[in-house]
Design a protein that fits this description.
By secondary structure, the chain is mostly helical. The protein contains 19 helices and no strands. The longest helix has about 35 residues. It is globular.
């Protein structure tokens, strides 16, 4: 590993481009399930709870494996680990299309989670370490564009490919096709320039090294980080419910086909592209006046998120589909806008040598606490709140926004501790 690495410049831009493209593919492979779910349910005669488990197993494995994989990334190589993960999740996506029973799909989607478990923390650390601190939230905002853009492409392309019965493969075709770009980019990332892997140590007058586990303990002793991570978990629960179930909700509530539902969802996500950059820019500009602007911005957005969700469901219940859809668009923008300022908190509070692990802990808390269970909980509620053979997604959705308000409270608590924790980091001289 070269020791003359410098932040910024052309190599950093190339790294940001390749890693962001992989994040797009990551979400394409994740979202293909959401839009093909109605066809899979019919083809394999699944219940809503089983359909929910296909999403939840992914998130559970992401939560369980994120920390060990993040440790490997921080202590080994960002680009090497990202390359392996991209190829692995692409193979798992391909095998999902081969599934003929619930168990087959369950295992395959779990394997996608294994491949993607360390990508968010690894990618976040890689691009954060490639640029200077003053531009971090904006750079993170560009990186997190992979979420809505990948979701958009995954939903739009998968819906039309599946509905068109491409090659006579039906819902299986998009799984086969989406696996290809992940392998290509997984090879291309090997040509990016990685920063030097360093030990976790105290600087200034001492070269004392500390263990990875000591670093984890230090992160977990930070109140701002813990409150922000649980806040992300709450908001991600809402986002997970929307991304997993909304196409199916559109199919049922509007009596439309998968391709039309994917178009509606695609339009919604297209506007959501404004979210990460909007949230990151607001937080960065506000930071000139308030150091704790990032968690505060996330708190305000989480409140708006929940209010909009209730308003959209209310209008939909009266079949006011056009104004309701406008609200759903705003829901998408607001939900994704939370991501940049919320995720930036995990990078602000730790030294560079702990950034992958910090993001990994955030992912573990996010999915382990709440987010992983959104698909199966909503599916289970849909089954029990409906009648035999007639699940009720609308009733299940009506309980979801409550969790967003919980997230707002947690982000507010993070903001209350933020300045004190930043001061402690600066005094510790961790590198």
């Amino acid at each position: 590993m070269k020791s003359d690495f410098k932040e910024g410049g052309g190599h950093a831009a190339f790294t940001l481009t390749v890693v962001t493209l992989l994040y797009i593919i990551n979400y394409m492979d994740r979202m293909v399930l959401s839009v093909t779910l109605p066809m899979i349910k019919q083809d394999l005669a699944l219940t809503d709870a089983q359909c929910g488990w296909l999403g939840t197993i992914y998130y559970i494995l992401v939560a369980v494996l994120t920390i060990p994989i993040s440790i490997i990334i921080d202590r080994w190589s960002r680009k090497g680990a990202i390359s392996v993960m991209a190829i692995l999740w692409s193979i798992a996506t391909f095998t999902t299309g081969m599934g003929g029973k619930f168990l087959h799909l369950f295992i395959a989607r779990g394997a996608v989670g294994v491949g993607e478990a360390g990508f968010a923390p690894g990618g976040m650390a890689y691009i954060s370490g490639s640029f200077k601190e003053e531009s971090r939230a904006r750079v993170v905002g560009v990186f997190t564009l992979g979420q809505p853009l990948g979701s958009l492409l995954g939903i739009m392309l998968a819906g039309y490919i599946a509905q068109a019965d491409l090659f006579g493969l039906g819902w299986r075709a998009p799984y086969y096709l989406f696996a290809i770009p992940g392998v290509i980019l997984g090879i291309l990332v090997l040509f990016t320039k990685d920063y030097e892997t360093s030990s976790i140590s105290y600087s200034s007058d001492s070269n004392e090294s500390i263990s990875v586990w000591k670093g984890i303990v230090e992160i977990l002793k930070t109140p701002t980080f813990l409150y922000a991570s649980f806040g992300v978990g709450a908001v991600s629960f809402v986002g997970g419910a929307v991304l997993h179930w909304l196409p199916t909700y559109f199919v049922r509530s509007r009596n439309i086909d998968v391709a039309t539902a994917s178009t509606l969802m695609g339009i919604m996500i297209l506007f959501s592209l404004l979210g990460p950059l909007l949230g990151g820019t607001i937080a960065d500009r506000w930071r000139i006046k308030r150091k704790n602007s990032r968690p505060l911005t996330a708190a305000i957005l989480a409140i708006v998120y929940g209010i909009l969700f209730y308003l959209g469901l209310f209008l939909d219940s009266y079949q006011l589909f056009t104004p309701a859809f406008i609200i759903f668009i705003l829901i998408g923008i607001t939900g994704f806008a939370c991501s940049a300022p919320a995720y930036s908190v995990s990078q602000d509070l730790v030294p560079r040598s702990l950034r992958s692990i910090s993001m990994g802990l955030l992912v573990l808390i996010t999915y382990g606490s709440m987010a992983a269970y959104a698909p199966v909980i909503v599916g289970w509620l849909s089954d029990i709140l409906g009648e035999p053979g007639k699940p009720n997604l609308s009733a299940a959705f009506s309980l979801v926004p409550i969790v967003s308000f919980l997230g707002a409270f947690l982000f507010y608590k993070a903001a209350r501790h933020h300045d004190k924790d930043i001061s402690k980091l600066q005094q510790s001289n961790l590198t």
